[in-house]
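Not sure how to ask, but would you mind making up any protein sequence you like and the tokens describing how it folds?
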Amino acid sequence: MGKRISTWVTVLVLVCFFTSGCYYFSAKKEMRNAEQLLSDLKGKGGERLVPYEYCSAEKFLELSRMEFDEYDYKQSKKFADRATSAAQTGLAEVKKR
């Protein structure tokens, strides 16, 4: 009986570890992507040309970093996704001009 319980506990711990790790890496990757897009947007004059999109991307990325530092990787990824989206929208608007 003791071996069966320890096996289940080990499996449960491994599943939790791998599940939480997925959010860690996906949040980290999305944050890097958002940082790159924001840098591109800044380089193309996004602060001046599309201030709403630039500010939104910047603040969502800031929130993403805060959540990441608090170990809430799922929420961090959501904010990083929104930062990426805002930066992509800003870049599209800058290219139209």
Q: What stands out?
A: The radius of gyration is 19 Å. The mean pLDDT is 90. The CA atoms of residues 57 and 83 lie 4 Å apart.
